[in-house]
């Protein structure tokens, strides 16, 4: 047994750590479901074809994240339930404000949508990284693997959004007159 790692799941079954883990799974499960509803709106509002495609591709990926989270719940013997995520709720609302507060067809809107999307990605990266570590600590091998897979995909999406912003959107937005 590794130091600092507990592989006896019977010990963790009713622990405070597992309680926290489940609560955080419910939180990110709600967040991913919210993104499934929000990403189509972001894709529709985007001007850049690259950005539209990135949002549409991430929508499909996010649907897989929802399914993967359901597998995580099953793997630890819990029922998949949501718990409202105030952080993602606020990030989604901020994205809607960006759409409402920018001109349709503008690079400014795309730049704002990228920022909103990266806020969501960074929240997810932090959450999945923490959950994967907790799963490892509690010896939930399958959960750790599933969470780690999603973490890698979220990190890739964040990098893609940066590349899209740097490919000309930010520059175009800087040239738009007020």
Automatic annotation (TrEMBL):
Q: Gene3D superfamilies in the record, alphabetically?
A: 1.20.1260.10
Q: Which InterPro entries match?
A: DUF892_YciF-like, Ferritin-like, Ferritin-like_SF, YciF
What name has this protein been given in UniProt? Answer: Ferritin-like domain-containing protein
Can you name the source organism?
A: Ilyomonas limi
